[in-house]
Specification:
15% strand; 8-stranded mixed sheet; elongated; 8 strands; alpha/beta
């Protein structure tokens, strides 16, 4: 058959595998961000970097969709290097979308404390990068800057830290870029600069957030205390002078296991205090539901969080005033 015949022309316009892969990429670039922003309130309520990336990805998907529509009847031959590059680019796009989906935060699940109604002894203010809780009276002199765990909604720590506010301390819960504290381990500095009336500061964090808090406490001597929730430092703070440390962990934690907590003890100052919640698990240090890889609890969430909150207040009470 003549290559110039109508049948040959139809075959030339038939969509190729790379075309359908492009369609898949477009659907993923538009669909995944739309699903994340619509279904998870923690996305738009968190640090602006993640929704910014999602909007950019969706915009790229729309642009690509328009190009595919305009060139739907055009089939251009590709050399081998161009074909390899085209496939590599599309695989990279799908990997990017998978990463964005992985960054979808664990959403705040209000517990018994929230269901009891809003507390009348504190004021909550929220910005794009932090949630600040302040006791109504008297004016606090001590404060805690808290780094959430990886990909956990900052609101998930409001209830467990509220008793510290009720005891007279200001608490600033950071909203981390992409929900990963190590992307900006010095973020606590901006919170401290926004609260110049506080004279004594502690930093703390849950899981990966505790790693960032440890790094900040190591490098900033104006920090008096380090509070670790199911966490431990990566580098030694043994020689850090003037730093009081409390490590609170759960005996059934499947992520920051008791063995890991014990192995990290030599990284902390010799007078660091360790408190273990019997039967506690990793996800009990916030209100965001169950977490993959965690252990099986041997205590209720409410009972565990009461112990964690009490230990936190007692620790803040011990801090030396700056």
């Amino acid at each position: 058959m003549d290559a110039s015949s109508p049948a040959a022309a139809v075959r030339a316009r038939r969509p190729t595998a790379i075309y359908w892969t492009s369609v898949t990429c477009v659907a993923a670039l538009i669909g995944v961000p739309a699903w994340m922003m619509a279904a998870n309130p923690a996305v738009l309520g968190g640090h602006p970097l993640l929704p910014g990336l999602l909007i950019a990805a969706a915009a790229a998907g729309v642009f690509w969709a328009v190009r595919l529509w305009r060139r739907r009847d055009t089939r251009r031959p590709r050399t081998l290097p161009r074909a390899v590059g085209a496939w590599a680019g599309r695989i990279a796009v799908l990997a990017l979308v998978a990463t964005l989906a992985w960054l979808n935060p664990f959403t705040y699940h209000p517990g018994a404390a929230a269901e009891a109604g809003p507390r009348s002894d504190l004021t909550v203010t929220e910005t794009t990068t932090a949630i600040t809780m302040t006791p109504d009276s008297p004016a606090p002199a001590k404060g805690l800057v808290f780094y959430p765990g990886a990909r956990v909604d900052a609101r998930a720590y409001q209830d467990i830290l509220a008793p510290a506010v009720g005891a007279g301390y200001r608490v600033v819960i950071l909203k981390e870029p992409l929900g990963l504290s190590l992307l900006d381990a010095s973020q606590a500095r901006s919170a401290m600069a926004d609260n110049l009336d506080i004279t004594t500061w502690a930093v703390g964090g849950h899981s990966l957030g505790g790693v960032a808090a440890s790094s900040f406490a190591q490098d900033n001597t104006d920090v008096s205390g380090l509070l670790l929730y199911a966490s431990y430092p990566l580098d030694s703070l043994r020689g850090r002078q003037g730093l009081e440390v409390l490590s609170v962990s759960g005996t059934e934690d499947g992520l920051s296991t008791p063995a890991k907590i014990d192995a990290s003890a030599d990284l902390l100052p010799a007078d660091a205090e360790f408190t273990a919640v019997q039967g506690g698990v990793h996800a009990f240090f916030g209100d965001y539901g169950a977490q993959p890889g965690d252990g099986e609890p041997g205590i209720s969430r409410e009972a565990a969080q009461e112990q964690i909150a009490d230990a936190t207040v007692a620790f803040l009470d011990r801090l030396q005033r700056g």
